[in-house]
Amino acid sequence: MADPDFKVWQCRTCGYIYEEALGDPSEGLQPGTRWADIPDTWICPTCGTPKSDFDMIEL
Amino acid sequence: MIPQDIANTIVDPRAYADGKRIDHAFAWLRREAPLEQAQPEGFDPFWVVTRHADILQVERQNELFHNGDRATVVTNIEADTQVRAMTGGSPHLVRSLVQMDNPDHFNYRKLTQGSFLPQNLKALEVRIREIARGFVDRMAAHGDRCDFARDVAFLYPLHVIMEVIGVPEHDEPRMLKLTQELFGSQDPELNRSGSEVTDVKSGVDTIQSVVLDFMTYFNAITDDRRANPRNDITSVIANGKIDGQPLGYLEAMSYYIIAATAGHDTTSSTTAGAFWALAENPDQFAKVKADPSLIPGLIEESIRWVTPVKHFMRTATADTELAGRKIAKGDWLLLSYPSGNRDEAVFDQPFKFDITRTPNKHVAFGYGAHICLGQHLARMEMRVLWEELFKRLDSFELDGQPKNMVANFVCGPKSVPVRFKMH
Ligand code: HEM
Question: Is the ipTM of this structure higher than 0.85?
Answer without folding.
Answer: yes
